[in-house]
Amino acid sequence: MTGIKKSKNELLKDARLQELEGKTEDAIKSYNLVIRKAPLQAGAYNRLMILYRKLKEYKKELAIIKQAIAAYEKDFKDDQQTWKKANSKSARLSLSLAKSMGLLNDKGLPVYEESQIISWRKRMETVQKKIKTPAKPQKKKPTKRLKK
Question: Using CB atoms within 10 A of its CB, is residue 125 exposed (0-12), middle (13-18) or buried (19+)?
Answer without folding.
Answer: exposed
